[in-house]
Amino acid sequence: MRIDPQLEQSQDVKSLLEENLKYAKEIYTSTEKTRRYILWGQVFGFLKIIIILVPLVLGFLYLQPYLKSALGMYSSLFGQNDGSSSSLPLLGGGNSDLLKQLEDLQKSGKLRDLQKLLGQ
């Protein structure tokens, strides 16, 4: 008994189609896993950025008054009460304030006491 060549070809094509369908399903499941992996990677990447930026922004907003007062104390330490960006008193900026303070100390007699303490 001989099998019809068309029927044999049809069965070969059918087996090839079934095998192709099996591989297509495997590729689909692999693609879905990859898609989910990429999606979660994007979500966690966004969360990382949020976790880093939100504390920085909130910290800046809440610490701004403290930073201003600290910078104000620092600038008043060097005689820059007007908030200008002049140089340090020892470098030429604010010499008039320093001289005025020295004159006040001299008038009050505290300059002599200071010189005695320094051994001059």
Helix and strand content put the structural class at: mainly alpha
Strand content: under 5%
Poorly predicted parts: 83-93
The figure for the number of domains is 2
The radius of gyration is 41 Å
Number of helices: 3
Helix and strand pattern? HHH
Biggest β-sheet, characterized? none
The dominant shape is rod-shaped
Mean pLDDT: 80
End-to-end Cα distance, whole Å, is: 130 Å
* Count of beta strands: 0
Share of helix among residues? over 70%
Would you write up a description of this structure?
The protein has about 120 residues and is mainly α. It folds into two domains: about 1-75; about 95-120, no CATH class. The protein has three helices and no strands.
Question: What is the structure about, briefly put?
Answer:
The chain is mainly α and 120 residues long. It has two domains: 77 residues; 28 residues, no CATH class. The chain is built from three helices and no strands.
Record keyword descriptors for this entry.
2 domains, 120 residues, mainly alpha
What is the secondary structure topology, with strand pairs?
Elements: H1 5-77, H2 95-108, H3 110-118
